[in-house]
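Progress report, Aim 2. The chain analyzed during this reporting quarter is listed below.
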Amino acid sequence: MQESKSVNQSAEQAPVASRHPGAIRMGIIAFFSHNMAAGTIFSTFSVMLASVVARRGVTTEQAAVGIPLVVIGSLLLAPVVGVLVARYPLRYVLRAGALMIALAFILLAYTTSYTAYLAVHALLLGPGSAVCGAVAPATLVTRWFGGKSGLTLGIVHLPLIVIAMPVTANYLNETYGAQVTYVALASLLALILVPLTFFITDHPPGGEPRTPVEAAGTTADGSLSVLQFLMMPRFWIIALAGAALTTGSVTMGAMVVPMTGSWGVMHDQAAMLVSFTALFGVAGAITFGWVADRIGGARGLALLTAIVSVLWFALLLHPRFPSIIMVNGLMGMCGAGIIPNLSRAISDTFGQRSFSRGFGLSMTIGLPFTLVAVPGFPWIYRITGTYSPAIMALATFYAIGCLFALAASRAGPLPAAAR
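Predicted structure tokens for the chain:
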């Protein structure tokens, strides 16, 4: 059996989705899906934390457990969401995810039980985030924009609503209280995102895009199954490169304040770094989305891991605050490029039909590394009195991820004969 044609050839043969007027509509829906999910779930969490403590009679540490539960639930269920998106119309899956998030906020508004609080985050917000914040919008863009999906994904992931949401939620919470704020968040999902799902078309006119993987051994629609992905070394090297990037991005977000504080940076200055990360991320989403389209997703992952590996090694020097701003800002840019490049790498290698399963599964593969790294940093600091060993380990993980991504880029699209 002959090897499949290159990605560029496949893209030329497939319907030119990015030129169809409906593609813009799909991109807008994907933008609102990602931004509204991330904005309502993650951007408002810290704003509402004090009200959770007061209404439920728990400590701040107990209330803060909500976000880790969302992340774990989202990453664990991402492969399941990938399968659902591949099997059922995307409008139904995305609508269900939006309704889950809306229901979660209604329950948070009218319940005061801490057990219910934990259940809502793990069982509703986690799956809702996997659907609306990650798998569904990336799948929609990949199906409709073909060879320009990297830049489009970068634009879709611009955190415009995410940036505005904390200020809005804080105003509502201080003026009208937590219950009204939660109801307002639920209303945003129900009145904006849910109606938008009725305008989703799964594929551009002319049928599904062709895939470089076709023949026996796949699922009924010609896509790869989860088991087949897990048995492919090529998938693992792409997923591990993505896992390195995701682990470092989450760890920096969680540890930037205590880590820089140990170097003498004032607490208020360290807190500013979080804002700089978001600001640089806006530029990074577009820049590295464009890079993904120019050089391919796998090479883009190699570039990102190489840059961030150098940046983490630079932190071993304990730079002064102005230099930390630049290092952290560049990390924010690279973090914003993860989704566009990982998405392109999976789509380029395994085909658009298999994208949702592969993308969802790759997200889950990164979870164990994140669960080790985030608590591992303070543990190592407590034992050694310095973050340097943890920094060196993470920078090395990035370097290994870079080698994996380079190997994936050299291999190219998966040949049909490899199955």
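The two ends are 10 Å apart (CA to CA). DSSP finds 19 helices and no strands in the chain. These observations will guide the mutagenesis work planned for the next reporting period.
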